[in-house]
Every structure is written in C-alpha cells, then in structure tokens.
C-alpha cells in the first residue's frame, strides 16, 4: 500500500485506489469506535437508584426519567426495581453499607422515621422551598417527588351500589371482594393500615374483623393487586384517587372510578434520599435536584399517575380534573407513624388470621 501510494503521488490515474483506501479507512475507524463504545460506556460514572417495580416498568416513569437525566449528567443512570417501598427499605437494611444503591426512591412518610433511624441515609442540599404539597415540608434527608390519596378503585359499569365508607364496604354483599396489599412489603398496604387506624382509632380491630371476609387476597405489591382488579378477579382494589386518570388519559376509558369515603382519605407522600454509603455523592445530589425540576415533575402525572410534588409549568394534564377530591385529608406525623404502625399491624394480623 505504501509503494502504491508513492506511485500514485506521481500518477493522477490512481484516483480509484485513493477512493478504496478512504473506504477502508472509514470502515476501520467505525469498527474501532464500535469496539470501543462499551469501554467508553463503562467509564461513565454510574448512579444506582433503588425504587419500586412499577416505577421501572416500560409504562412507568423510569425509562423517560433515565433518558432525561442522562442527557444532563454524562452518566449512566441505573434504575433497580426492589419491590414496593417497604420491601425496598428492608433490602437496604440487609445490604447495609455494602449496598450498591446511591439513592432510594419510593419510601413514604410512613417509613421515613424508621429509615432515618437506620443511619443509612445522608442529608441533602436540595432547595425544597418551591414544593406544592398539601402540608409544610421540613426534612433534611428525604425529598418528596409526588403525592396522592389512597382509595378503593372500582369499575363503575359493574359496581352501582358504591360504598362511601369502610362500614358501608363491610356491609356490601357477601360475594363482593376486594384486593389489598401486604403492609409489611407494600407502602399502599401500610397506608391502608394507617388510614383505618387514623379514621377509627380503637375501633380499628372491629373494622378489620368486618373487612376480612371481603378480602379476596393480599398481594406483596401494588402491581399484582391492580392487575388482578383489571383482569376482573375482584370488585375493588386498594389504589389511589389518581388511578382513574390513567384509564381516562391513556386508554380513553371512563369506566374506572375511586370511591369517596366519608371518613376522608389517607395521604401518601413519596420521597427519595441519598445513601450515606454512596460512592457518587455529588451525582446523587444532582439527581435529587433534578427530581424536583420541571422536567422530572412533568413526567410524573402521566406515568406514575400521582400528583407531582411541584406543579409543572404546563399544569396538570386534562383528566386530573375528573378525579374525586377527599372531603378530609388524613395523615400521621412521620415521627408517630412507626409506633402507630406496630399497633395497627398487630390488629390487622390478628383479625385476618381468625
């Protein structure tokens, strides 16, 4: 090739050779880049976020958030499904400082005091003064990214006698069945425990005794329960007042509704925090800042189907205006939730085991 190149310098008739050599050079360069790209990707800093399974599903917010954040961070965002929120915290406790997680996303205020007590989480530096929550927020570890109210969702073409309280639900026909989630592994399941406890106090055991025959099954997480409902296996499922928005917006389906209970509805505020053991603390801080940005928050309503912690600049999507508004908001202070949880869980286990 060197000899022919020297000859071609003196001979203009070698243009074809030059073209072929250029093709070869281009092909070789492309091959080198292709072989090198995995190595280049491996050199990008990786931020690992533990979250719940529905968040990382194809229809959840995970894929869009991963793409949006990676466009700003020159990093590899690794979203790991770790069950529902309570299961997520259990996994982090088992892994301890050996955990690969840099951020936990998917706990809620019913678990934050317990999570803080583990010593696994670090303080954040994110400015949270622009949050749009129904309550004031002051927490130097956990940052909210969405919120909503628990509710029982039903098919309004099949259920016409709609229960408007837990007591009315108890009095539904014997063959009326609901699906709920396990409070030991699921944040909605735990939310239901605290909803009943907050609304009925000392009568909570009585309510669970009445509800027990109506419970078709208790699932480990939300996804399984909601799937059973949409498959027609149950009349109602424990979910959120915002769940019908999915059917309205994504499916143009107006047949799913949330029952409005006279006792009020228990509020869930979902949060994220940085692990103290993170080997990417600055990148974790950047993600937490990004989490309450307009870009992140605008993804939440139509993928996680919750209210965003900060109302996006374009407002809430059409369809959210068709949702029920609880007449009363129920929530237990995060510092009290652990103590109430233990008592409520004991009542629940006792009554459901009878």
Report the total helices. 14
How far the N terminus sits from the C terminus, by CA atoms, comes to: 87 Å
What class would the helix/strand composition place it in? Answer: alpha/beta
Residue stretches low in confidence (pLDDT < 50, at least 5 long) are 1-37
Strand content: 15-25%
How would you spell out the order of helices and strands? HHEHHEHEHEEHEHHEHEHEEHHEEH
In helices, the fraction of residues equals 40-55%
Q: How would you characterize the largest beta sheet?
A: 12 strands, mixed
Q: Describe the global form.
A: globular
What's the pLDDT, averaged over the residues? 90
How large, in whole angstroms, is the Cα Rg?
A: 26 Å
Task: Describe this structure as you would to a colleague.
With 354 residues, this protein is an alpha/beta fold. The chain is 42% helix and 18% strand. It has 14 helices and 12 strands. Strands 1, 2, 3, 4, 5, 6, 7, 8, 9, 10, 11 and 12 form a 12-stranded mixed beta sheet that branches.
Task: Write the topology of this structure.
Blueprint: H1 2-10, H2 15-43, E1 46-51, H3 53-56, H4 62-73, E2 76-81, H5 85-95, E3 103-108, H6 112-117, E4 121-122, E5 143-155, H7 166-170, E6 178-181, H8 187-200, H9 204-211, E7 215-219, H10 222-230, E8 236-240, H11 243-251, E9 256-258, E10 265-275, H12 281-291, H13 294-297, E11 307-308, E12 329-330, H14 334-352
Parallel strand pairs: 1-2, 1-3, 6-7, 6-8, 10-12
Antiparallel strand pairs: 3-10, 4-10, 5-8, 5-9, 5-10, 5-11
């Amino acid at each position: 090739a060197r000899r022919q190149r020297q000859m071609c310098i003196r001979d203009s008739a070698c243009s074809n050779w030059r073209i072929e050599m250029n093709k070869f050079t281009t092909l070789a360069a492309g091959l080198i880049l292709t072989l090198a790209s995995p190595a280049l990707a491996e050199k990008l800093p990786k931020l690992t976020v533990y979250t719940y399974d529905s968040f990382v599903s194809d229809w959840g917010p995970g894929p869009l958030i991963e793409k949006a954040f990676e466009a700003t961070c020159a990093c590899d965002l690794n979203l790991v499904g770790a069950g529902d929120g309570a299961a997520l915290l259990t996994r982090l406790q088992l892994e301890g400082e050996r955990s690969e997680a840099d951020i936990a996303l998917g706990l809620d205020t019913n678990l934050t005091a317990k999570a803080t007590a583990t010593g696994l989480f670090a303080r954040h530096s994110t400015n949270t003064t622009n949050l749009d929550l129904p309550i004031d927020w002051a927490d130097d570890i956990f940052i909210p990214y969405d919120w909503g109210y628990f509710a029982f969702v039903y098919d309004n073409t099949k259920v016409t006698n709609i229960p408007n309280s837990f007591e009315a639900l108890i009095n539904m026909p014997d063959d009326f069945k609901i699906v709920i989630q396990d409070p030991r592994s699921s944040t909605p399941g735990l939310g239901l425990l605290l909803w009943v406890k907050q609304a009925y106090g000392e009568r909570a055991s009585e309510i669970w005794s009445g509800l027990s025959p109506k419970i078709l099954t208790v699932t480990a997480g939300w996804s399984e329960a909601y799937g059973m409902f949409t498959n027609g296996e149950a009349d109602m499922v424990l979910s959120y007042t915002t769940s019908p928005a999915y059917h309205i917006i994504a499916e143009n389906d107006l047949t799913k509704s949330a029952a409005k209970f006279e006792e009020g509805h228990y509020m869930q505020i979902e949060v994220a925090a940085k692990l103290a053991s993170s080997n990417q603390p600055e990148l974790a801080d950047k993600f937490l800042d990004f989490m309450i940005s307009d870009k992140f928050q605008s993804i939440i309503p139509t993928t996680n189907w919750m209210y965003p912690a900060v109302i996006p600049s374009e407002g809430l999507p059409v369809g959210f205006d068709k949702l029920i508004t609880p007449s009363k908001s129920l929530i237990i202070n995060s510092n009290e939730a652990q103590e109430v949880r233990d008592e409520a869980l004991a009542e629940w286990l006792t009554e459901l085991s009878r």
